[in-house]
């Protein structure tokens, strides 16, 4: 396995474990089980924040790979145009 691929798989696994642990964490507390009023607002805010973080990370990851592909295609077009 290539070193970079190993790092990506390791990060993916650790992100999965961290997500599961943090997602199941509220189940352990009675404060979250009887959520009303202000508690619901806090839970909603935390949910929205986590969703925004995951969307941002996902888009950032896709953007980096897309820019790699675009760079190689632009270089091909420049070489073809010069000929």
Automatic annotation (TrEMBL):
GO terms for molecular function: metal ion transmembrane transporter activity. It holds the Pfam family Zip. It is found in: Membrane. GO terms for cellular component: membrane. The keyword Magnesium does not apply. Its main location: membrane. It is a multi-pass membrane protein. InterPro entries: ZIP (IPR003689). Keywords: Membrane, Transmembrane, Transmembrane helix. The chain crosses the membrane at residues 12-32, 44-62. This is Zinc transporter ZIP2 isoform X3. It comes from Delphinapterus leucas (Beluga whale). The gene is SLC39A2.
């Amino acid at each position: 396995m290539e070193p970079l691929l190993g790092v990506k798989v390791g990060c993916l696994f650790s992100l999965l474990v961290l997500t599961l642990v943090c997602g199941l964490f509220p189940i352990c507390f009675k404060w979250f089980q009887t959520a009303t009023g202000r508690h619901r607002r806090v839970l909603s805010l935390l949910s929205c924040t986590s969703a925004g973080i995951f969307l941002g990370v996902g888009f950032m990851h896709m953007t980096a790979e897309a820019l790699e592909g675009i760079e190689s295609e632009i270089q091909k077009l420049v070489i073809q145009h010069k000929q």
